[in-house]
Each structure stands twice: as C-alpha cells, then as structure tokens.
Amino acid sequence: MATPSQYELSDPPSDAISAIKFAPASLRLLVASWDKNVYLYDTTESGGRLLQTFQHRAPVLDVCFGDSDEDAYMTGLDWDVRQ
C-alpha cells in the first residue's frame, strides 16, 4: 500500500476550497475556491508553487483536467464552464 502524501500550500486560497484535482500524468494540482478563483499549483516542490490563478465572477464549484495536464475545465455559480 502506498504511503499517503500531504501538501500544505504556501499560497492557499483565501476562502473555502470547493474542489481539488490532481493531474493524471503529473503533480499539478487544481484548486477551486469560494474566493472566486481557481489555483494551479506544481506540487513537486515543498509547499507547492503557485503557477497560475484564474479569476471568475462568482465562487468556483468544480474543476477537472482535460485530455492533458495543460487543459483544465472549471465551473461555478456564474453558470460558466471555462477552459
């Protein structure tokens, strides 16, 4: 059985987290938050390095990766599905 890993993000969201997803082929992490942002982290480093932030008009409820680790989809209370 694999040992579970824990990640404490160095730049976490400022409000509640609604969804987290790891990329299927890398250690990238998508985090959806009620602070109206989606955060993309590289978790190969301790604390996770924030790569990019995607702003929405309303809280974000869910995220997922697409066919590759470069594609991400997100949706929230603004009724938009964004890539």
Descriptive notes:
It is a single chain. The chain is an all-beta fold and 83 residues long. Helices cover 0% and strands 46% of the residues. It has no helices and seven strands. It has strands at 17-22, 28-33, 37-42, 49-55, 60-65, 72-76, 81-82. The strands form two sheets. It has a four-stranded antiparallel beta sheet, with no helix packed on it. A three-stranded antiparallel beta sheet has the order 5-6-7, with no helix packed on it. It is globular and about 35 Å long. It starts with 16 loop residues before the first strand and ends with a strand.
Give the gist of this structure.
With 83 residues, the protein is mainly beta. It is built from no helices and seven strands.
Kindly list the characteristics that best describe this protein.
0% helix; 83 residues; 4-stranded antiparallel beta sheet; single chain
- Specify the number of helices: 0
Sheet having the most strands: 4 strands, antiparallel
Following the backbone from N to C, one meets helices and strands in this order, namely EEEEEEE
What percentage of the residues does DSSP assign to strands (E)? Answer: over 45%
- Measured as a percent range, the helix fraction is under 10%
The poorly predicted ranges are none
Order of strands across the main sheet: 1-2-3-4
Q: What does the radius of gyration come to?
A: 12 Å
Based on secondary structure, the structural category is mainly beta
Please describe the topology of this protein.
Layout: E1 17-22, E2 28-33, E3 37-42, E4 49-55, E5 60-65, E6 72-76, E7 81-82
Antiparallel strand pairs: 1-2, 2-3, 3-4, 5-6, 6-7
